[in-house]
Amino acid sequence: MGLTKTEIFTNKQNQLATLLKAMAHPARIAILQRILISNTCICGDLVGELGLAQATISQHLKELKNAGIIQGTIEGVSICYCINPKTWKLLEQQLGAFLAEYKGETTCC
Amino acid sequence: MGLTKTEIFTNKQNQLATLLKAMAHPARIAILQRILISNTCICGDLVGELGLAQATISQHLKELKNAGIIQGTIEGVSICYCINPKTWKLLEQQLGAFLAEYKGETTCC
DNA sequence: TATTGTTATCGTAATATTGCGATATATAAT
DNA sequence: ATTATATATCGCAATATTACGATAACAATA
To answer: Are A99 and B91 within 8 A, CB to CB?
Structure first.
């Protein structure tokens, strides 16, 4: 046990869950907001801005990268991270469709 | 360690992370979609539809309820679960604002 | 080449999550 | 009162997550 039974769900459900999970941490939300606000890559400014150790931030960046939400290229001395447009669009689509399925309040509860 | 450092993040960041975390599991996405599609409460039809044990589903429902995403009332023999309109609106708002912060592709990556 | 600055990875401890069988609880029907 | 049906909770094992110090890797510069 302790292992999610992905095989009984649809690809879309698993994919959305993976994306949400990657964002479901305040540090990773803060990192994404930092990238979004500056509208460019971030190159290590994060350490010091957030109150987390360098190793921890690197780990969070890796998770965001593994999920495909951000992408990074080596840029000389520091790494350049930015939003992956493809995944961001997918996220807006999937999540938008999911949230929009709500038809409004029902009378039973 | 193993404990999220919520105190170094804003309330909004923590709140959004909590909501996302509650949804970040394929079973819970499936449960929510099931509620959304039928547009009414669900009363135990889930067991059997999903391939999970009754105890597991009950636990997932509890997590969604704890996060405030669904609400339930005792309805005779079975429990009635439906979307919590307030939280759903909050989710649409917060998540919409978050996703909309993206200004489009940059040239650096 | 040696040094400096930056990011990644390893190893580890503490805690959380996932899933389920067993059992408890509670209502409706007999 | 007993039985049937439905949901919740407990306890457990397996696995995942979170955080960080230590250290490695790597490019730029002196």
So the answer is: yes
